Amino acid sequence: MSVRSAVFYLDGQLAPEARFLMEDFRLATNGAIRAGLQACVTSRNGLCKLAYKDFREKHPNMYAQHLVSAFEVAAGILKNHRRRLRTGWAVRPPYVKPLMMKAENQAYKLDRKEGIVDLPIRAGLHVKLMLVVSRYHRRYLDDEAYSLGSLTLLPDKVIIAFRKTPPKPYAPVSVLSLDTNERSLDGVFIEEGSGAPVIAQFPDVAIIQQRHHDRRRRLQKKKANDRRTARALCKREGQREHNRVEYRLHQVADKVLSFAKSHRSVIVLEDLTGIRHKKSRDMNRRLSLWPRRELHRIIEYKAEDDGIPIIKVDPRYSSKKCPICGSIQHSRMGTEFECECGWHMDRHINASINLLQTASSKGLVGGLRFDPGAFRHDAMMILYEPAMAARSEPNGMSEEGVVVP
Question: Which among 332, 349, 394, 405 is placed 20 to 30 Å from 366, CA to CA?
Answer without folding.
Answer: 349
